[in-house]
């Protein structure tokens, strides 16, 4: 049986002998390199694993002082070539992929010659598992990404990670890396954190990383450097996994099979021998390879890694104007978050304005406090902090915007207020300055209608918290020109956000869908459905939070306001809930310690036609399918893929759903509600 992956970009294992001072024999250094720069990371397909296998054989034949594996500049290895997985035809082929990786990597683990991983850059998935098989590990402080992200894709670490990691760093930390982090928007480990966990034996600076790694390895071989690792506490193993399973049940309700498979494998790792544990990994991998969740996960991964970097419909970047100063209208919490983000990423002066000095001082003070916190936690050096202090300023006089190239407003969500702001600013700013609005639902076209130069107004919609959520909806008004739009996309890229081009339509993408979704759930409450039933109805989807927790995060007042905007635009589909208004007016939290607030429940006036949880869930899914089809027909975004990208990056919807449209397709909701699928068969599904 051939395991050759179609169109595999082969990562070659290049062997060379290196003379190391203090050793009487050369070291064997294996460098992983696929022949491309760091923008196309090393991955392992069958041919790459075969190349590594051959390099290990040649290295051992030379009888070196030690064997070390490292990567090309900035990249160690980011794991298996997952693009080849959909080409697998049967379970036996999936088993063979797992077994091949295990067999090759195990040669480093079982070697009589000392083996080292010099983790010089990004190490994810199978790349990190390769490093775990080596006897010792050095780690560059400049490594950009360290993780075992497989669970987020619908897989498990399938080349020894579930067996080696817990027995190296303990079950609590291993559970965090293998299950918790992937389910938290694929949270990465920082090099310092990985070293503190014990994943690496020593942390070295990137400037002379290879030289210092060779020197350190020589010290280990000579017996001059002692590597000690704390004994793993196995008494707490069962308790940690019991708690982890409870947490998964509460959060995912069985919706992510890979997370539960990973838990089972971590349980196996406590007492099973390595061969038994890795055989269990092979079986788990083979089961998951032919799951719908994996196909959705791979689709979502491709959106985030590729489509997000090449936004559909974005104009020629050569049209973008330089931005040397940023103005922010407002100094509230959102404006202050924006000021910090712009200063950190663009490294240009940022000035905030507000109605009075106390508000300005509070906004600037917030920025300074966040900088101080970053320094105290070791996330920012004092030199950078000093520079940022100098870049961010405030004023009550809008004339400070006269030389700004990019001005963004973050004032009250009222069309009249925003139009007044732009009318004042147009008299101050230079003709080519971009005027951006952070509105979450209002019309960009209407906002710019009375201006002399409406072509320079663009929607620039962030998601809260600004520093965390990567989505930026860039909204083109009817008269927004290409230069303005190109500048907006260039700024979005500098801010390290994933930008999606959106048509000027009420509430754009994420807020429109979430409002329709929440509106359907709350309509069920208005009918008489108990709050706890409506709140738990969507649990089988494994969403990041339940509807009422999401409503509390958004804010009932904001949700009611956005709902009102959409009701005016689409009264037949977006209702106005008086119960939601009562909650907003009360100012009380809907959820307290994950429990529904009884005081809020007492405020509700409901009907006598309660729905079952299944009815609530199906109504919500039907509403989403209908709204997405209408949005695509209206041209709000280019394709269904952009809807999914927005929901993943702006609302945190999980990879195992593929955002939203793959789930609607595979449950038959799309065809039943709209008459057709959103995606062709096989794009994000098995068939």
TrEMBL record:
Domain 3-hydroxyacyl-CoA dehydrogenase NAD binding: residue ranges: 325-504
Catalyzed reaction equations: a (3S)-3-hydroxyacyl-CoA + NAD(+) = a 3-oxoacyl-CoA + NADH + H(+)
Pathway: Lipid metabolism; fatty acid beta-oxidation
InterPro entries: 3-OHacyl-CoA_DH_NAD-bd, 3HC_DH_C, 6-PGluconate_DH-like_C_sf, ClpP/crotonase-like_dom_sf, Enoyl-CoA_hydra/iso, FA_oxidation_alpha_subunit, NAD(P)-bd_dom_sf
Domain of life: Bacteria
Leader peptide range in chain numbering: none
Protein name, per record: 3-hydroxyacyl-CoA dehydrogenase
Record domain 3-hydroxyacyl-CoA dehydrogenase C-terminal: where: 508-587
Keywords: Fatty acid metabolism, Lipid degradation, Lipid metabolism, Lyase, Multifunctional enzyme, NAD, Oxidoreductase
Family to which this protein belongs: In the central section; belongs to the 3-hydroxyacyl-CoA dehydrogenase family.
Any coiled-coil regions, as ranges: none
């Amino acid at each position: 049986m051939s395991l050759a992956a179609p169109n595999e970009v082969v990562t070659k294992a290049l062997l060379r002998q290196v003379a190391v001072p203090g050793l009487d024999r050369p070291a064997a250094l294996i460098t992983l390199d696929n022949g491309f720069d760091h923008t196309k990371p090393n991955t392992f397909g069958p041919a790459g694993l075969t190349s590594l296998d051959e390099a290990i054989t040649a290295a051992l034949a030379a009888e070196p002082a030690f064997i070390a594996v490292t990567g090309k500049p900035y990249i160690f290895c980011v794991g298996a070539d997952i693009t080849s997985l959909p080409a697998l035809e049967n379970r036996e082929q999936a088993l063979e992929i797992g077994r091949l990786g295990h067999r090759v990597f195990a040669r480093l683990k079982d070697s009589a010659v000392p083996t080292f991983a010099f983790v010089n850059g990004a190490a994810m998935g199978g790349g990190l598992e390769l490093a775990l098989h080596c006897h010792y590990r050095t780690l560059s402080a400049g490594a950009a990404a360290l993780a075992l992200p497989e669970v987020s894709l619908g897989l498990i670490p399938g080349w020894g990670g579930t067996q080696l990691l817990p027995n190296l760093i303990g079950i609590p930390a291993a559970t965090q890396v293998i299950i918790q982090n992937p389910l938290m928007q694929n949270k990465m480990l920082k090099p310092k954190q990985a070293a503190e966990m014990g994943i690496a034996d020593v942390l070295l600076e990137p400037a002379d990383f290879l030289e210092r790694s060779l020197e350190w390895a020589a010290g280990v071989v000579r017996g001059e450097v002692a590597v000690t690792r704390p004994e793993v506490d196995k008494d707490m193993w069962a308790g940690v996994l019991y708690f982890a399973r409870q947490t998964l049940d509460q959060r995912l309700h069985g919706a992510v099979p890979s997370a539960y498979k990973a838990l089972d494998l971590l349980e196996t790792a406590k007492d099973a021998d390595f061969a038994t544990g890795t055989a269990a990994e092979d079986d788990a991998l083979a089961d998951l390879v032919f799951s719908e969740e994996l196909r959705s996960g791979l689709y979502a991964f491709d959106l985030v890694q590729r489509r997000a970097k090449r936004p559909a419909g974005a104009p020629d970047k050569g049209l973008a104007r330089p931005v040397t100063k940023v103005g922010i209208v407002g100094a509230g919490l959102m404006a202050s978050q924006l000021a910090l983000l712009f200063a950190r990423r663009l490294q240009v002066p940022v000035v905030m304005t507000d109605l009075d000095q106390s508000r300005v001082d509070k906004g600037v003070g917030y920025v300074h406090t966040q900088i101080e916190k970053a320094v105290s936690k070791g996330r920012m050096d004092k030199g950078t902090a000093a520079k940022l202090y100098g870049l961010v300023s405030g004023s009550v006089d809008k004339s400070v915007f006269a030389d700004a190239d990019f001005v963004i407003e973050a004032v009250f969500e009222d069309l009249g207020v925003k139009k007044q702001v732009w009318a004042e600013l147009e008299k101050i700013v230079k003709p080519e300055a971009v005027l951006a609005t952070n509105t979450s639902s209002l019309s960009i076209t209407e906002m710019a209608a009375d201006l002399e130069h409406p072509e320079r107004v663009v929607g620039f919609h962030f998601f809260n918290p600004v520093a965390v959520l990567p989505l930026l909806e860039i909204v083109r008004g009817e008269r927004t020109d290409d230069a303005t739009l190109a500048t907006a996309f260039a700024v979005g890229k500098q801010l390290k956000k994933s930008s999606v081009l959106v048509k000027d339509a009420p509430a754009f993408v994420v807020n429109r869908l979430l409002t329709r979704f929440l509106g359907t759930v709350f309509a069920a409450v208005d009918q008489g459905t108990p709050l706890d039933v409506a709140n738990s109805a969507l649990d089988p989807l494994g969403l990041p939070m339940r509807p009422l927790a999401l409503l509390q995060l958004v804010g009932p007042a904001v949700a009611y306001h956005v709902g009102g905007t959409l009701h005016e635009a689409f009264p037949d589909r977006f209702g106005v809930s008086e119960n939601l208004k009562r909650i907003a007016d009360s100012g009380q939290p809907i959820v307290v310690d994950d429990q529904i607030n009884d005081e809020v429940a007492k405020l509700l006036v409901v009907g006598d036609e309660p729905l079952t949880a299944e009815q609530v869930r199906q109504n919500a899914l039907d509403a989403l399918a209908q709204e997405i089809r209408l949005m695509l027909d209206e041209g709000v975004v280019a394709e269904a893929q952009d809807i999914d990208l927005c929901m993943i990056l702006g609302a945190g919807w999980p990879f195992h759903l593929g955002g939203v449209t793959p789930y609607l397709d595979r449950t038959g909701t799309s065809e039943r509600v709209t008459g057709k699928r959103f995606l062709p068969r096989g794009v994000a599904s098995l068939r």
